[in-house]
Write a structure and sequence with these properties.
Structural class: alpha/beta
CATH topology: Rossmann fold
Bound molecules: glutamine
CATH superfamily: Class I glutamine amidotransferase (GATase) domain
Helix content: 25-40%
Order of helices and strands: EHEHEHHEHEEEEEEEEH
Radius of gyration: 16 Å
Largest sheet: 7 strands, mixed
CATH architecture: 3-Layer(aba) Sandwich
């Protein structure tokens, strides 16, 4: 793929996909295509064994409930606080947000990224759409962004880098891809389709973290 690997491509990394709900299979396929060993994660012991974790698209209210049921919420928070690289797409972006707007009453998040995310943000204009998105750090031209009842980033702290924006109205841009350290989030679903360069970016982030930890 067009993404250039800044760390030796041969370095094996294991990336988990949170597998309580959502488009788990698509992320496993995308991560494998991007060169990682990808495994579903449903239990704390599985979480402890991965070099990075993906929080898939799906329904954030269901996922947060199931995270509690599976006793995964606190381990996931602890792992992220301890530096585990994480990538969230769509509902996964909502889960990684420190602050949430238009959530269900009392809806909790996992947290990690110093941002306020608005849930179902595009819904007021259009439920779902596709568009070309230029993502910083993803080489080879824009990627096809698939937005399904997607959130956007309403505001973010100074430590958060905006990697992509879309125009929602004349003159109004909203962030739809962000990175804070080893945490990555997109409002769209790169796991749907066959362009896995965003996953390539995350696999590189995980490789770099692993090399730094084990170096
Ligand atoms: N609207 C969903 C939520 O609140 C996210 C939709 C998606 O992941 N495609 O979780």
């Amino acid at each position: 793929m067009g993404h250039s690997h800044s760390v030796e491509s041969g370095q094996p990394v294991t990336i988990g996909v949170l597998a309580v709900q959502g488009d788990v299979r698509e992320h496993l396929t995308a991560l494998t295509a991007a060169g990682a060993d990808a495994i579903p994660v449903r239990r704390p012991v599985e979480l402890a064994a991965v070099d990075g974790i993906v929080l898939p698209g799906g329904e954030s209210t269901t996922m947060i409930r199931l995270l509690r049921t599976f006793d995964l919420l606190e381990p996931l928070r602890a792992a992220i606080a301890a530096g585990l690289p994480a990538y969230g797409s769509c509902a996964g972006m909502i889960l990684l947000a420190d602050r949430l707007l238009d959530g269900q009453e009392g809806q909790a998040t996992v947290g990690g990224i110093d941002m306020t995310v608005r849930r179902n943000a595009f819904g007021r204009q259009v439920d779902s759409f596709e568009g070309e998105v230029e993502v910083q750090g993803v080489e080879g031209g824009p990627t096809r962004g698939i937005f399904i009842r997607a959130p956007w980033v309403e505001s973010a702290g100074p430590g958060v880098g905006v990697l992509a924006q879309v125009r929602v109205q004349a003159g109004e841009l909203r962030a739809v891809a962000v990175r804070q350290g080893d945490l990555l989030a997109t409002a769209f679903h790169p796991e749907v389709g066959s362009d896995y360069r965003v996953h390539g970016l995350f696999v590189d982030m995980v490789r770099e973290r692993r090399a730094a930890n084990h170096g």
